[in-house]
Structure to design on (102 residues):
């Protein structure tokens, strides 16, 4: 239990928020790729790597932060899927040819 005393609560919160944002951005990146929106996909990709670097750098010094990263990842994916698709049971809207940017 010595390792629990070494947890910095602000750093743990930062890891949770960074991984939640990372997963949310990853979902948006994937959505942009599927919709063939090149600029949006490139922007989300750059943001994705920037956010993930904070979490990786933070938890490489202490493995316990991986738990916070996993929690943040779950929250980010869940919230972004909820935002994109609404409540469960509502299928995503089909992609129309008009909505695809070339």
């Amino acid at each position: 239990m010595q390792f629990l005393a070494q947890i910095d609560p602000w750093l743990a919160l930062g890891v949770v928020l960074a991984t939640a944002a990372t997963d949310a951005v990853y979902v948006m990146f994937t959505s942009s790729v599927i919709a063939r929106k090149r600029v949006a996909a490139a922007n989300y990709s750059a943001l994705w790597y920037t956010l993930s670097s904070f979490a990786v750098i933070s938890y490489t010094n202490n493995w316990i932060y991986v738990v916070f990263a996993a929690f943040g990842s779950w929250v980010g994916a869940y919230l972004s899927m909820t935002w994109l698709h609404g409540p469960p049971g509502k299928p995503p809207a089909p992609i129309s040819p008009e909505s695809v940017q070339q």
